[in-house]
Amino acid sequence: MKCMRIASWLLLLAVAAGGCRARPVAPLATASPRPRLVVLLVIDQLPSWSFEPRRHLFRSGFARLLERGVYVPHAELPYAASSTAPGHAALATGRPPASTGIVANAWYERGSESLRWAEHDDTDSLHPLGGDTVGSGVSPRRLRGAGLATVLERATGGRSHTIALSLKARAAVMLGGHDADVAVFYDPAQVALTTSTYYGREPPAWLRALAEQQPIAPRLAWRWQAEDPELLARETGIPDDAPGESAPLGMSTRFPHDLGAAPEPHRALGVTPLADRLVLEAALHAISAEGLGLDDDPDLVAISLSAHDDIGHVYGPESWESLEHLLWLDRALGELLLALDERIGEDRYAIVVTSDHGATHTPEWSHAAGLDAWRVRPSDVEAAAEAAAQAIVGPGDWVLDGHGPTVYLDQAARSLPAELQDQVLDAMAEAIADVPGVGLVMRTDRALGDCDQHRGTAALVCRSIDPERSGEIYFTPRPGSVVMSPPDQATGHGSANPDDRLVPAMILAPGLAPRRVPEPVSTLRIAGTVAHLLGVSLPDAAEPIE
C-alpha cells in the first residue's frame, strides 16, 4: 500500500513515523455496499438564508454535492440553543441539549458559582506538541449519553476508528463523544494542533509527526486576499467595510487581511481560511496514517470547520469576507472529495455536510433594509432583572449572571422562601421582557416536562434546558435582534429564531439517488443518517435521511 500523491495543499501528507500503517484492503469487486469511510463535515455557522441564494456561485465541492447528492435546504434545529457546543453534541448523538446536557457553550455550576465551559476538564491536560506552554485540559465528560463513536465501537468490537477534528476544542470533543480514538483541536498557547490526555497517555504518532514536520507558526505570515472583488461587491450589495463590521485582533475590516501584521497572529488565524486549511490537512494526514476506509470495518471522520463562524461574528454573515470564505470552502471541499476519490474510492465513502447553527443578520444590515433589529446587551438584561428583584426583596446581589440564553439567580436569591422566590422570578421575567430587542421570556421551571406538550418557541426552549445546568429564566431575542457578548462583534446566534436554526444539509453516498428535500428536516436526523451509512444503530437518534 502506498501513500497518495496528489499535488494539493490538502495532500501534504507527512505521515507518522514508519510511514502509512497498512490495513487489509478488500477488493472493490467484493466490497460491502455500505461505505467503508463516512465523513461528517460540519461548517460552523452556515445559515440557510446565506447558503441557498449563493448556490449559483459554486463550481467545485458544493456543486458536486448539490448535483449528485441529497440536498436539504432547510435542516432545522428543533431546539433554541443554537450555539456551537449544543449543535455539535446534537449532530453526534441525535438528541437535543435537554438530553445531552450541553445546554450552551458554557454554563454556571451551582455551588461553586463558577462558569464552566462545556469541554473544560481539569482532570485531563493537553499534550505539548508545540511548546512547553499548553492550554487547559478538555474532555467530553460533560456530554451525556452515547454518540456515533460509541455505537460504532460497540458494533465492531473496537475494530472501527473514529477521529474528530476542529479548530475549536468544544466542536471536536462533542463530535467525537466519549469513545473517539482521538479528538484533535487547536491550542493557541502552543500554536499547534493537539489533543487531550483523555484520549491516551501519548498523542497519535501521525499527530506528533504533523506538528514536527509542518509547524503552524511559520505559516502565520499569511495574506488573505479577495480573488474577485467585483463579484463580492455585486453579490453582497454592500461595501467591503460595511457598517457593523469589527476589526478582529488588530486586523483590518477591508481586504487584504495580513495575518502576519496582526499583534497575535496565532489567535487571529481563526478569522481566515488558514484555520480550516490546517484542519483539513490534519484530517487527511489521519486518514492516510491510520489507513481509514481501507478494510471492511467502517470508519468515521468527523470534521468541524470553524472559520466561517468566526468570520461571520466579526465581519458579518453578509460581508465580503463571509462570501469569499464560502467560495474558498467550495474549492477546498472539491479537493477533499477528489482526495477521497483517489485514496478510498468513490464507491467506498460517503460524506454528510451540514452546520451546527445559523446566524442573525448584522443589525446594521437589517436597519438598512428597513427592519427593526437590536443588539441586546447582557448587562441590560442583568440590570433589569436585578432592579426587579430589589424592588421586592431590597438591596442585594440577586443575579449571578445574565449573559444568555439563561439568567442565573445568585445563591442569596435561591435561598429565599419559595413564595418570595416565585414573586421575584415573575418580576424578573416581566422586566427582562421589557428590554428592547428581547422576545420570548420563560421561567425554566415552567418549560420543563414533555416538550411535545409545548407549542412554538416554548417547545424549542423545553428541548434546550437542563434543570441542573440552565439558569432560572430563559430569554431569546426578537427575530432580527441578537444578544451580543462581547458587544464589539458584527452579529451572533444562539436564539430560537429561524435565521439561527435553519441550516443546509447535503449527503453524498454510494447508491443514493440525487434529490432535493423541500420540507424542513430535523438536524437530529443527521446522526441517524451517519449511523445508517456506517451500518450501525443509534437508538436515541431520529430516523435517518435516506
Word description of this protein:
The chain has 19 helices and 20 strands. With about 550 residues, it is of the alpha/beta class. It has two domains: about 30-360 and about 495-535, Alkaline Phosphatase, subunit A (3-Layer(aba) Sandwich), CATH 3.40.720; about 375-485, Gyrase A, domain 2 (2-Layer Sandwich). Strands 1, 2, 5, 6, 7, 10, 11, 18, 19 and 20 form a ten-stranded mixed β-sheet that branches. The chain has a four-stranded antiparallel β-sheet with strand order 13-14-16-15. The longest helix is centred in the middle third of the chain and has 24 residues, at about 320-345. Residues about 1-30 have low confidence and may be disordered.
